[in-house]
Design goal:
This is Hemerythrin-like domain-containing protein. By secondary structure, the protein is an all-alpha fold. Helix content is about 60%, strand content about 0%. Helix 1 packs antiparallel against helix 4, helix 2 packs antiparallel against helix 3 and helix 2 packs antiparallel against helix 5.
Length: about 200
């Protein structure tokens, strides 16, 4: 989970850092808005899978009703700002793109989101008091759901934000690209290659 959360943060950082440095080019601005849309879709996919499958399974395993409620509450805390950002990415015309506006929308939800992503890791570590094999199987089920994704809009973003070197390179998820790239222009904003190797951001000063 730490790897997935790191990828979410890396994706958001790439959006924030590049947002005000795009050239006045409608194609690039369109591609960047698509990139933002895909990041939002990835976020929805991740948190929906947690709330609809993983969290209920963990509560069944632990026998503790409401054990994961703090995580659900934290999702709700950043949702209004996140939805404002998503709406802008979906409705803004390339010719009307405003990098400062987009950056301010990110700032409105970034702090509660990153706090949640860090807190959730502590919550998961605390599950070691329960049946470890059942918890492991529940997490494998979550991974399977996360991989059952849109191979054209979400998968390229997941690979392009995953860092092969994170935590000493101990993770091999996702292992190899399994998608046929589309929206080629959008993936120029990813902070890593499709093989999860770090690279310089395309538009930053």
């Amino acid at each position: 989970m730490a790897l997935a959360h790191n990828g979410i943060i890396r994706g958001l950082n790439s959006i924030y850092l590049q947002s005000t440095h795009l050239p006045q080019d409608k194609t690039i601005q369109r591609d960047f808005l698509i990139y933002c849309q895909c990041w939002c879709e990835s976020m929805h996919h991740h948190h929906d899978a947690e709330e609809e499958n993983f969290f209920p399974n963990i509560e069944k395993i632990s026998g503790v009703e409401g054990l994961m409620q703090q995580n659900v509450d934290q999702h709700a805390a950043f949702t209004p700002g996140f939805e404002d950002f998503q709406k802008y990415a979906q409705t803004c015309k390339p010719e009307d793109y405003d990098g400062q506006k987009l950056r301010s929308l990110v700032e409105a939800f970034a702090e509660p989101l990153t706090r949640h992503l860090n807190d959730e890791i502590d919550t998961l570590r605390a599950l070691d008091k329960y049946d470890s094999e059942k918890v492991r199987q529940a997490y494998k089920g979550l991974e399977k759901l996360l991989m059952a994704t849109d191979n054209q809009r979400i998968a390229p973003l997941v690979f392009g934000t995953a860092d092969r070197s994170f935590e000493g390179g101990m993770h091999d998820f996702p292992s190899v690209p399994f998608f046929v790239p589309k929206y080629h222009g959008a993936w120029r904003f990813n902070p890593t290659t499709a093989w999860r190797d770090r690279r310089e951001l395309a538009y930053i000063k």
